[in-house]
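Can't paste images in this forum, so I'm doing it all in text. The chain is below; anyone willing to post the predicted structure tokens underneath?
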Amino acid sequence: MSDLNRGHFVIALVASIFSGNLAAQDLPDGDGKALVEAACTACHGVSTITRTAGYDSAERWREVFGTMVALDDETADTIASYLAEHYPEDPSRRPTLVPGDTKIKITEWTTPTLGQRTRDPIEAPDGSFWWTGMWASLVGRLDPASGEMKEFPLPPSARPHSIVPDADGNIWYTGNSNATIGKLNPANGEIQWYSTRAGDPHTAIFHPNGNLYFTAQRAAVLGRLNPETGEVDEIDTEPRPYGIKVAADGTVWIAYNGTNKLGAMDPDTMEVRYYEVPDERTRIRRLDLDSDGNIWFVNSSLGKIGRLVPETGEITQWDSPSGPKSHPYSMAVIDDIIWYNESGMRPDALVRFDPADESFQSWAIPSGVGIIRHTWVTEDGNLLIHQSSTNQLGLVEIE
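Text version of the structure:
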């Protein structure tokens, strides 16, 4: 452990012991409890541990938290043994994997800064892959041919939730913690940002009209930024707008994670037409469109995926293979095949659904921890994924 990391660890340990943290007291007694309180709860709540599906060995536990914090071998061994003893694998969280004929290859890279919560990858016009390290307020670039990575610091308070490239290769980010939309110029590292009324810009997408449209989940706001003028327009909307996509006809489609609705926004007037999905318990995180203009979505709360036909309002849903607690999260449509993940399972499962014959196929993500929260379809028709908890950036090559 470096002097800097050791210093931070000692400070966290002292703070944890003397703070009387009630959440940490929920951990069972045992050799290593105090170390876990310091190394783990310094960054996240103890519930992240107590709710975990666990792992079948100390080695697997060490592999997981080794992507989050740098520890000396003795400390890491003690923590890993404690976690393996008290939080073994919960087999009920294993996904139901469905065999099939489609072949894929998954390549994963571990991003440099520990504990950054790698997420929401994209491909830039030059073919490079980018990600956001939300907890570290950075964005990173990967050359997929060489594996070389470079990270670009953003304003510390930004905590970017997602990123999107423009045609010139600039990387735009949503400042989820400082109410900004920002633009990074990778050539010189310069950053320009625009303030929003919404406190938590979430996911953004460029429209053919040149504007950037975005959601703000906690604020319940939809926004539009004109990059040429810097003008930002924002409207109030239904609770917790989340995913956002643009249809071929220019309609901006919104997924709602706080109500059982999908929204269709006029890009000019910003008026929204709502479509109600059956069952008030429905919550939708992500969506995408097929070549016929149908809206595909994940019904995260009920373990389903669904399709809306906008012309008729008809909605059809299918149960995900791992059942009602599978929690589908991300979604992408590639050549009218639906790809999504079951984030409630361990390991996280990648699922393929073919609407033509209503067939499923699924695979376990190799690193298996962290949840795919967003995906990106590359120019050559492959899929960029990630595992946020363990700082993994991934490429799914579809054969």
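Residues 1-24 have pLDDT under 50 and may be disordered. Residues 96-398 form a domain with the Methylamine Dehydrogenase; Chain H fold (CATH 2.130.10.10).
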